[in-house]
Automatic annotation (TrEMBL):
<dbReference type="Pfam" id="PF00482">
    <property type="entry name" value="T2SSF"/>
</dbReference>
<feature type="transmembrane region" description="Helical">
    <location>
        <begin position="109"/>
        <end position="129"/>
    </location>
</feature>
<feature type="domain" description="Type II secretion system protein GspF">
    <location>
        <begin position="176"/>
        <end position="298"/>
    </location>
</feature>
<protein>
    <submittedName>
        <fullName>Pilus assembly protein TadB</fullName>
    </submittedName>
</protein>
<feature type="transmembrane region" description="Helical">
    <location>
        <begin position="281"/>
        <end position="301"/>
    </location>
</feature>
<keyword id="KW-1003">Cell membrane</keyword>
<dbReference type="InterPro" id="IPR018076">
    <property type="entry name" value="T2SS_GspF_dom"/>
</dbReference>
<keyword id="KW-1133">Transmembrane helix</keyword>
<keyword id="KW-0472">Membrane</keyword>
<dbReference type="GO" id="GO:0005886">
    <property type="term" value="C:plasma membrane"/>
</dbReference>
<feature type="transmembrane region" description="Helical">
    <location>
        <begin position="6"/>
        <end position="22"/>
    </location>
</feature>
<keyword id="KW-0812">Transmembrane</keyword>
<feature type="transmembrane region" description="Helical">
    <location>
        <begin position="135"/>
        <end position="156"/>
    </location>
</feature>
Length: 312
């Protein structure tokens, strides 16, 4: 790399950093109405991003205090670009993550910044070694930043699927325990409370939230409907609807719960068979495209060599 180009890159980096620092000076930045009233409504508006995760004497707390306004501003801009706040809110609830859309956007910014920084370090090393074009490397860093932002969204989808899988795994056992408690003479609310205290897992946490809503004044049927809407799983929706219908119409609850548990186990067995069939088809890909050509090559190569020797 020529000294002139290296000096230009370093000068541009220094100038960009200096411009960012100057633009964030207090006397050049007019505070908005939200910034002026935020210190008096800190416990209400929830603008303290991730500050509960760090102690006041930790370096992480100081970093969050320093870059918190910039992160929130970037999160708002990212939200305007990407949109879909309602979808993100539903997916966060289905994943069991107690965060706001703004905090999730800040996580996306941090992932994108980390990917951009890693690409920038690799690009500087490559340019210093005389490999690659600086403009192409800058475009590469930008693409890595975008991929980092999208990777957080993809990981949220993975978190949702993993939690739904855990909920479906726990549901038959919870239904059987509820049936045993109801058959022993306990009421629906008491049975839910006993199972929620006895079990550990995501479904037990959901049942605790249902009980909290009932203690707050909501009816059990409405809390179960909210559970079905919050999770978004068809099996869990049927389970909650079955409980609600049994409570409203006076159907024997123990029989309904046992039937629900049997249906859920049967659905899980069918899904396992379907998954095995799909994996069996997927296993044919390496067999056909990798193992079979090698076998054919080993079978025909000696004959081809022999024919060549005879013809020669």
């Amino acid at each position: 790399m020529s000294p002139l180009l290296l000096g230009g890159v370093l000068g541009a980096t220094f100038g960009a950093g200096l411009l960012i620092v100057v633009r964030r000076m207090p006397f050049l930045r007019k505070p908005s109405t939200d910034d002026r009233i935020a210190p008096y409504l800190r416990d209400l508006d929830g603008t303290e991003v991730f500050l509960g995760a760090a102690a006041s004497n930790s370096p992480f707390y100081a970093i969050l205090r320093l870059f918190g306004p910039s992160l929130r501003s970037g999160a708002r801009r990212l939200e305007r670009v990407l949109g879909g706040a309602n979808s993100i809110r539903r997916r966060l609830a289905r994943a069991g993550i107690e965060r706001t859309v703004e905090e999730f956007r800040i996580e996306q910014l941090l992932w994108g910044t980390a990917a951009f920084g890693a690409g920038l370090v690799a690009s500087l090393i490559a340019v210093a070694a005389g490999i690659g074009n600086p403009v192409a490397m800058l475009v590469f860093c930008g693409l890595l930043g975008v991929l980092g932002v999208l990777a957080r969204d993809t990981y949220l989808g993975t978190q949702v699927r993993n939690r739904e899988r855990r909920l479906l795994t726990e549901l038959p056992t919870v239904a059987e325990l509820l049936a045993l408690s109801v058959a022993a003479g306990e009421g629906p609310a008491a049975a839910l409370d006993r199972v929620a205290r006895s079990c550990r897992g995501d479904l037990a946490d959901e049942l605790k939230q249902v009980l909290a809503e009932t203690r707050a004044g909501d009816t059990l049927v409405r809390a179960l409907d909210a559970l079905a809407e919050r999770t978004g799983l068809l099996a869990l929706s049927r389970f909650a609807d079955g409980l609600a219908v049994a409570l409203e119409r006076g159907t024997p609850l123990a029989d309904v719960l046992r039937a629900q548990a049997g249906d859920i186990r049967e659905a899980g067995r069918r899904e396992l068979i379907e998954s095995g069939a799909r994996r069996e088809v997927a296993m044919m890909v390496p067999v056909i495209f990798l193992i079979l050509p090698v076998t054919i090559a080993f079978a025909f190569y000696p004959g081809a060599v022999g024919i060549r020797l005879i013809a020669g």
